[in-house]
């Protein structure tokens, strides 16, 4: 464990190039965008920026595949990307950086294992797949037994970091990676994957930070109770932003106006990216007459697709109405489109509607925990990953409360305590 591997040395060169503003490894795919969109300051929050960056890359790749009229599923897109050396360099740099951030949280230096170090861990290990060509050891314990088998997630010191990266870029309903470490599910998030591997003390501190932020939000809402507060600047904006991301990461099969919507979506994503590059809201962007015409034509196609029953188009349009992006701001229309899509069995809409009822939408939806739970259960049964996780935690909390009631039927203060803890757990899951 004391001898540096080639990947350890490579990371040092990569990191030096990045910090000095030099081209990395002769050039990464999307290197300019990576530098512009991500502040890689070795913090956990920088991993959130990488997740957002990878989602933007996914959108761009999908747009290019659609434009080239390539009939590729998610696995096919993965194979296409991994054929390109610059793209492999990009994944390698992100993987090395993520391992470095994780090890830093453990007070250790990341050690990157290549095929030659991984093969002795398990004789059945297959190293011909790029996804498993690198793993990160991130603890101080240099005496970790590398001879142990890696068939279980109970070896938390070993992390195959390409798994969540590939899931972020290429995962979907028709393609799910099988984790080499036996995880039930690979999370399509670098940030969450690292959080799951943090030392216990850091996790506790993180929860405390989240609880503090929740409390700060409550205080802020009370302070601004008399001020005019539309849904666009309420915390439901975060809900809709998350929904926009889910349109790419959680596909739902459509039967109406599929090709027309996809073409229009590609056009509008370019306008969205243009606004981001300008650092302005879409309403602040001055378009030429020809650009206005193209934008309006694409919006009309999305509206028509929504009318025909394409729930992805409904949700895309709902986000625009909520933010006032390229269309006049209309939270009421946004809410109606979410409801219509949820009633059409779109699990993304169901999950979003659940959040809306739990949090409330100023002037449009009153907080209603019953309806929030109702839509959460339906979204969970429909296969929405986040809804399943939250629903599981809710049921676990309810069982804990019921068990405690049976054990201490007369001691109300303990019942209230456990109920309070259950509520905090639920809030943390919803807001994180």
Count of spatially separate domains: 3
Overall mean pLDDT stands at 78
For the record, give the distance between the C-alpha atoms at the N and C termini, rounded to a whole number.
36 Å
* Largest beta-sheet details: 3 strands, antiparallel
Query: Which word captures the global form?
Result: globular
Which regions have little confidence, pLDDT < 50, spanning 5+ residues?
142-154, 203-237
Rg, Å, rounded: 23 Å
What is the strand tally? Answer: 3
Strand content: under 5%
Strand order across the largest sheet? 1-2-3
Structure, explained:
The protein is mainly α and 432 residues long. 62% of the residues lie in helices and 2% in strands. The protein folds into three domains: 193 residues, no CATH class; 139 residues, Alpha Horseshoe (Serine Threonine Protein Phosphatase 5, Tetratricopeptide repeat); 41 residues. It contains 18 helices and three strands. α13 runs antiparallel to α14 and α17 runs antiparallel to α18. The longest helix is centred in the middle third of the chain and has 24 residues. The two termini are 36 Å apart.
Short descriptors:
single chain, 432 residues, mainly alpha, Serine Threonine Protein Phosphatase 5, Tetratricopeptide repeat, 3-stranded antiparallel β-sheet, 18 helices, 3 strands, 62% helix
List the helices and strands and how they pair.
Layout: H1 6-20, H2 31-37, H3 45-67, H4 74-82, H5 85-105, E1 111-113, H6 115-118, E2 135-137, E3 158-159, H7 162-170, H8 190-195, H9 200-223, H10 236-249, H11 258-278, H12 289-307, H13 311-323, H14 331-343, H15 347-359, H16 369-381, H17 385-407, H18 412-431
Antiparallel strand pairs: 1-2, 2-3
């Amino acid at each position: 464990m004391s001898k540096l591997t080639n990947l350890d040395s490579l990371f040092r060169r990569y990191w030096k190039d990045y910090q000095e503003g030099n081209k990395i490894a002769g050039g990464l795919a999307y290197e300019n965008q990576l530098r512009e969109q991500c502040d890689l300051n070795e913090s956990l929050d920088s991993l959130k920026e990488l997740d957002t960056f990878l989602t933007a890359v996914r959108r761009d790749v999908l747009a290019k595949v659609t434009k080239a009229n390539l009939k590729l599923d998610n696995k096919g897109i993965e194979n296409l990307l991994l054929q390109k050396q610059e793209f492999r360099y990009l994944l390698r740099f992100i993987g090395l950086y993520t391992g470095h951030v994780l090890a830093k949280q453990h007070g250790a230096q990341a050690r990157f294992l290549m095929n030659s170090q991984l093969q002795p861990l398990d004789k059945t290990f297959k190293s011909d797949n790029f996804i498993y060509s690198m793993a990160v050891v991130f603890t101080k314990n240099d005496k970790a037994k590398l001879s142990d088998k890696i068939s279980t997630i109970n070896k938390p010191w070993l992390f195959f970091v390409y798994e969540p990266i590939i899931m972020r870029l290429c995962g979907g309903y028709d393609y799910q990676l099988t984790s080499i470490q036996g995880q039930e599910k690979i999370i399509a998030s670098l940030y969450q994957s690292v959080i799951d591997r943090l030392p216990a003390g850091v996790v506790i501190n993180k929860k405390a930070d989240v609880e503090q932020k929740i409390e700060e939000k409550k205080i802020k809402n009370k302070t601004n109770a008399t001020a005019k507060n539309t849904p666009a600047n309420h915390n439901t904006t975060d809900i809709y932003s998350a929904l926009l991301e889910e349109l790419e990461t959680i596909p739902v099969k459509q039967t109406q106006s599929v090709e027309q919507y996809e073409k229009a979506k590609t056009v509008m994503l370019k306008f969205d990216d243009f606004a981001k590059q300008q650092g302005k809201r879409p309403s602040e962007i001055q378009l030429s007459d020809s650009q206005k015409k193209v934008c309006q034509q694409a919006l009309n196609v999305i509206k028509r697709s929504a009318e025909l029953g394409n729930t992805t188009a409904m949700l895309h349009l709902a986000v625009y109405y909520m933010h006032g992006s390229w269309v006049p701001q209309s939270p009421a229309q946004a809410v109606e489109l979410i409801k219509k899509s949820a009633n059409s069995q779109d699990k993304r809409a169901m999950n979003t509607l659940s959040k809306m009822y739990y949090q409330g939408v100023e002037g449009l939806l009153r907080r209603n925990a019953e309806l929030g739970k109702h839509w959460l259960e339906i979204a969970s049964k429909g296969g929405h990953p986040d809804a399943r996780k939250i629903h599981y935690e809710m049921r676990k909390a309810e069982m804990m409360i019921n068990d405690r009631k049976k054990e201490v039927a007369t001691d109300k203060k303990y019942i209230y305590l456990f109920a309070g803890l259950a509520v905090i757990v639920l809030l943390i899951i919803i807001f994180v």
